[in-house]
């Protein structure tokens, strides 16, 4: 997983209840045009996301993501 953030917009075939959900983005699954998460917005399929609870702390999410990278 390459980064964490919130869903700000969904495609026309997805439920708008996903907006505002906290997620991590999987960079391993290839998406044409994806060049990493060092940007303000990333467009990716739902299958590339790991969802977190609404009250999750980004510091803890990033520590988990870093731990995954180590192994």
In short:
The protein is an alpha+beta fold and 71 residues long.
Describe this structure in words.
The chain is of the alpha+beta class and 71 residues long. It is built from one helix and three strands. The protein has one helix at 58-70; strands spanning 3-6, 22-25, 49-52. The termini are close together. The relative contact order is 0.27.
Task: Itemize the secondary structure elements and their pairings.
Blueprint: E1 3-6, E2 22-25, E3 49-52, H1 58-70
Spatially, the strands of the biggest sheet line up as 1-2-3
The value of Rg in angstroms is 12 Å
Low-confidence parts: none
Number of strands: 3
State the distance separating the first and last CA atoms.
12 Å
Main attributes of the structure:
71 residues; three-stranded antiparallel sheet; alpha+beta
């Amino acid at each position: 997983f390459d980064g964490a953030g919130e869903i700000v917009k969904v495609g026309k075939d997805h439920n708008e209840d996903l907006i505002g959900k906290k997620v991590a983005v999987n960079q391993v699954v290839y998406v044409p045009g994806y060049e990493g998460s060092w940007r303000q917005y990333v467009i990716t399929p739902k299958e590339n996301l790991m969802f977190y609870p609404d009250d999750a702390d980004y510091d803890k999410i990033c520590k988990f993501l870093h731990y995954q990278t180590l192994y």
